[in-house]
Write a structure and sequence with these properties.
Layout lengths: L2 H33 L7 H8 L3 H7 L3 H15 L5 H4 L5 H16 L3 H10 L4 H22 L10 H12 L1 H8 L6 H16 L1
Helix pairs in contact: 1-2, 1-4, 4-8, 6-11, 8-9, 9-11
Length: 201
């Protein structure tokens, strides 16, 4: 085997090992965020879970912002949200809102523990707050804009329409309705769709 070929093989193997280590670290962080929350996740626990040293964690993620961004992207890739583009195909705004809420509330239910933890701890961790704004925040903004189209009530300012819709779409609204409110996902979606229609129609 030529020297250049051997060197290329070693470099490729090293890159694969680094990618695998990075993946283990990210998966360890995601698991800990769901179990105990970001604020209670320590580098020692991450290293133990990923079976790496603490310096290795810092080598791959020298600052918290990079780690939070990588974890957010990893989790969202494994947990794709309802497609807002599909909602645009529904002409009637009332039906569009009801379908959107049914899909989103069904999405929230099996992911409640993770979403509760990260939203709670985002108030304590600026880098997490930034990551959520770039993911959940931008998604809800786009979803609200999609659902705001087609309503006849012109007395409502666009800003007010978006505010009403963001409230209906928000995780904490679903959590309140299905938690202390005692509603099923379907009942919660139907109720909020009706309230939105009464407000915007």
């Amino acid at each position: 085997m030529k020297k250049e070929t051997r060197r290329g093989y070693r470099l490729k193997e090293r890159a694969q090992q680094q990618a695998e280590t990075r993946r283990r670290i990210v998966e360890a962080v995601v698991a800990l965020h769901e179990e105990v929350g970001p604020a209670r996740t320590t580098v020692v626990e991450i290293a133990d879970r990923a079976q790496v040293s603490r310096p290795t964690v810092y080598t791959h993620f020298p600052d918290e912002r990079l780690l939070m961004t990588a974890c957010s992207q990893h989790w969202l890739l494994a947990n794709p949200r309802p497609d807002t583009a599909a909602w645009k195909q529904i002409a009637d705004p009332r039906t569009r809102v009801r379908v959107a809420l049914e899909q989103l509330y069904s999405y929230y239910a099996p992911r409640e523990r993770m979403l509760s933890n990260v939203l709670r701890d985002s108030e304590l961790i600026p880098s997490l707050s930034e990551a959520l704004q770039n993911t959940i925040g931008s998604y809800l903004q786009g979803a609200a804009e999609t659902l705001a189209k087609g309503w006849d009530n012109r007395q409502r300012a666009r800003r007010e329409k978006l505010a009403v819709l963001k409230l209906a779409l928000h995780f904490h609204t679903w959590q309140t309705l299905t938690g202390s409110g005692g509603l099923t996902n379907g009942e919660a979606a139907e109720l909020m769709a009706r309230l939105v229609a009464e407000s915007l129609g």
